[in-house]
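Message: A physicist's question: would you kindly supply an amino acid chain plus fold tokens?
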Amino acid sequence: RGFVKILISNTSDTPLYQQIKDQIKDAILKEELVEGDALPSIRAFANDLKVSVLTIRRVYEELEQEGFIVSQVGIGTFVSTSNLTPRLQTTACRTKNGGYDTNSKITENQ
């Protein structure tokens, strides 16, 4: 199972790190990436996308802060949806038609 294809545009008004971060989050929410899936190393991912290592580091740091991934020193970076905080799960509600309702809120488990 390969990593999802990330498409970036240098002409977009959206910063590169945000484009990459949004696509990874989207892949997790659509379950194209699932709990435990490994993400590429920062250096390999930066080389693949032809962006700075600092760009990918920022993407990974922000995704980890938001609970989408977890980094384990010396092991790798992995999808970790179990760490999502309720206030950040606003885009994780499925609608009847299988899409995602970005206006929904998920409450904490009682």
Confidence is low (pLDDT under 50) at residues 87-110.
